[in-house]
């Protein structure tokens, strides 16, 4: 295995599995379009598609390769053939826009997720909470990147606001005008590591990546800063930055679905408070001995944050129920106490007897 593959993130975690595929080569997916995967391999770039058997065995979107995946391929004269996707270390997904609960794979095998948000008109603390939940849920470590500091007059106050919802998460402030914050960003990108950039369209992800690459590889948006421009990133692409690690650029996510997110990490404060509530099924409404409501009264927790948490919880719950379709869970959800379930069962039995 040559050094480039190591820089690309092919470490012992993956190599252990690679050994089982004698006669096949390993590659990392750098982009995909209409079933054709672009791979980086120790023999350079090549195109590939999945085998018929692969397609036959696949049961859903999660089985297919995505950007960042390491795959085992067989070389042929035309497109190489992908036979296997190596086990993933992490996986960033998003819910498809619209009604379906089908997940869309964004990127795999990421070590860190840079959540980018601009300090001017894109700034939204509730959205940051969503991004954090999704990032923690992927298995990668989130880092917050606040861009366009030059367009913001109260950076301090906004940092303060961010720090309240991002316990244990590093925050970097950047500006393309004076290259502020670019060096710290580089420090998060040692060779062999993979970073994915997420955040709304126009916040400056491509600008930041181009600065890291030291060249204009990605087209940046028009000179407007009003987030209404039409030209937005549509690709998802993986780049190996020489001397540094791997970067994955993702499209601006307009609607970030919440799919069984791990709320305990991004809302660890509420989670802690919940443990102190008198009742362990406390809904934090008007129950006696509710530590969450007490914290709101004491001004330690904002009501908005609790609402945001409860909204995410409901959404995550709904997605879970829908995905798994567990009848028992559903009953529990519909009737939140046992007595009601019993009454319901009795009624069902009686009804059946009448038949
Ligand atoms: N003033 C200022 N403008 C910036 C900064 N960073 C980026 N911009 C500008 O913001 C616009 C959008 O930047 P992009 O890098 O294309 O944004 P993006 O996040 O990649 O957007 P998508 O490709 O749509 O996802 C461009 O006009 C940039 O020049 C910054 O720190 N300060
Ligand atoms: Zn409570």
Automatic annotation (TrEMBL):
Top-level taxonomic group: Bacteria
Family named by the database record: Belongs to the TRAFAC class YlqF/YawG GTPase family. RsgA subfamily.
NCBIfam families the UniProt entry points to: ribosome small subunit-dependent GTPase A
Entry cofactors: Zn(2+)
PROSITE patterns in the cross-refs: ENGC_GTPASE, G_CP
Major localisation: cytoplasm
Binding site for Zn(2+): 277, 282, 284, 290
Cofactor binding remark: Binds 1 zinc ion per subunit.
Coiled coil: none
Residue intervals of the CP-type G domain: 99-256
Protein name: Small ribosomal subunit biogenesis GTPase RsgA
EngC GTPase domain segment(s): 108-254
Alphabetized InterPro entries for the sequence: G_CP_dom, P-loop_NTPase, Ribosome_biogen_GTPase_RsgA, RsgA_GTPase_dom
Record keywords, A-Z: Cytoplasm, GTP-binding, Hydrolase, Metal-binding, Nucleotide-binding, Ribosome biogenesis, RNA-binding, rRNA-binding, Zinc
Record Pfam families: RsgA_GTPase (PF03193)
Sites where the protein binds GTP: 147-150, 199-207
Function: One of several proteins that assist in the late maturation steps of the functional core of the 30S ribosomal subunit. Helps release RbfA from mature subunits. May play a role in the assembly of ribosomal proteins into the subunit. Circularly permuted GTPase that catalyzes slow GTP hydrolysis, GTPase activity is stimulated by the 30S ribosomal subunit.
Subunit structure as annotated in this protein's UniProt entry: Monomer. Associates with 30S ribosomal subunit, binds 16S rRNA.
EC number: 3.6.1.-
Compartmental location: Cytoplasm
